Each structure stands twice: as structure tokens, then as C-alpha cells.
């Protein structure tokens, strides 16, 4: 099996933090894939990018009355080895800098880097 078959890119572009029920599944998939020893990169862009800003995911509960927050889902995936990336354009959009991102975020991944990996066949892609 090639390295590309072991790398999963989860592109979160349509998951809206204002709809909490949308927010757990991508991180669950990331945790499962990482636990299966696949390299997992999660790129959060557009409105989803807000989830990587400190203080945002900690306040979102997927299910009313549930103690587990979206940030807990992120930490669980990260603990299994998933890497999280912010979109640099989002930082500008939200008037934030890298220091404003949660510690689980590995840094920024620009559109060109992501597109190059996809076009080179270096990863499989799931979108949420």
C-alpha cells in the first residue's frame, strides 16, 4: 500500500459551528482513522475555521445536556494522532493570528499546499 493510501485529509469547509450537531462527526472520523494508524490532517477553513480559535469549541455542545464539548472531540482526535491545520486566509478573515489558535492546531496550511497534495495523489480526501 502506498503512503497516499495511509494519509487522510479531512477538509472541513461546510461544518458550521452554529449547528452543533454537525461538529462531532468530522473529529470522530479523524480519531478513528488516526487510531487505525493512518496519517490524518484536518484542515478547517471558512466558518469551520472558528473551531480552531481558542475559546470557541469549548463552548459548543453537540447534544443539549451533554458534558462533552466540540473541543473534547478535537482533543480526542489529536490524542490519537490527528493533526489540525488552520487556513491562513481565515486568520485574516477573523482578525486572528496563530497565537489565537488552540494548542492542538499544528499551524496553517494554505490552499496551494492542500491542492498540491490532492492533485499529486498524496492523500485521500473526506469533506465535511
Can you give a write-up of this model?
The structure is a single chain. With 128 residues, this protein is α/β, with parallel strands linked by helices. The protein has helices at 3-6, 25-35, 70-80, 88-93, 111-119, and strands at residues 7-12, 39-44, 83-86, 105-108, 124-127. A 5-stranded parallel β-sheet has the order 4-3-2-1-5. Strand 3 (83-86), helix 4 and strand 4 (105-108) form a beta-alpha-beta unit. The radius of gyration is 14 Å and the shape is globular.
Provide a short characterization of the protein structure.
This protein is an alpha/beta fold. The protein has helices at residues 3-6, 25-35, 70-80, 88-93, 111-119, and strands at 7-12, 39-44, 83-86, 105-108, 124-127.
Q: Which keywords apply here?
A:
128 residues, alpha/beta, Hypothetical Protein Ychn, Chain: A, 32% helix
Q: Provide the CATH architecture.
A: 3-Layer(aba) Sandwich
- CATH class annotation: Alpha Beta
Question: Which radius of gyration do the C-alpha atoms yield?
Answer: 14 Å
CATH topology title: Hypothetical Protein Ychn, Chain: A
What is the terminal separation in angstroms? 26 Å
CATH superfamily: DsrEFH-like
Order of helices and strands: HEHEHEHEHE
Q: What's the tally of helices?
A: 5
- What's the overall geometry? globular
As a percent range, the share of helical residues equals 25-40%
Mean pLDDT reading: 94
Low-confidence stretches: none
Q: How many strands, what sense, and barrel or not for the largest sheet? A: 5 strands, parallel
User: Order of strands across the biggest sheet?
Assistant: 4-3-2-1-5
- Tally of structural domains: 1
Amino acid at each position: 500500500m502506498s503512503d497516499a493510501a495511509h494519509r487522510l485529509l479531512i477538509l472541513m469547509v461546510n461544518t458550521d459551528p452554529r449547528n452543533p450537531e454537525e461538529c462531532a462527526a468530522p473529529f470522530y472520523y479523524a480519531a478513528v482513522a488516526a487510531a487505525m494508524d493512518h496519517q490524518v490532517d484536518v484542515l478547517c477553513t471558512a466558518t469551520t475555521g472558528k473551531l480552531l480559535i481558542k475559546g470557541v469549541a469549548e463552548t459548543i455542545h453537540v447534544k443539549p445536556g451533554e458534558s462533552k464539548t466540540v473541543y473534547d472531540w478535537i482533543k480526542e482526535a489529536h490524542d490519537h494522532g490527528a493533526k489540525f491545520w488552520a487556513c491562513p486566509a481565515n486568520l485574516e478573515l477573523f482578525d486572528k493570528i496563530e497565537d489565537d489558535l488552540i494548542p492542538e492546531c499544528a499551524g496553517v496550511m494554505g490552499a496551494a499546499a492542500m491542492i498540491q497534495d490532492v492533485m499529486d495523489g498524496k492523500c485521500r480526501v473526506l469533506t465535511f
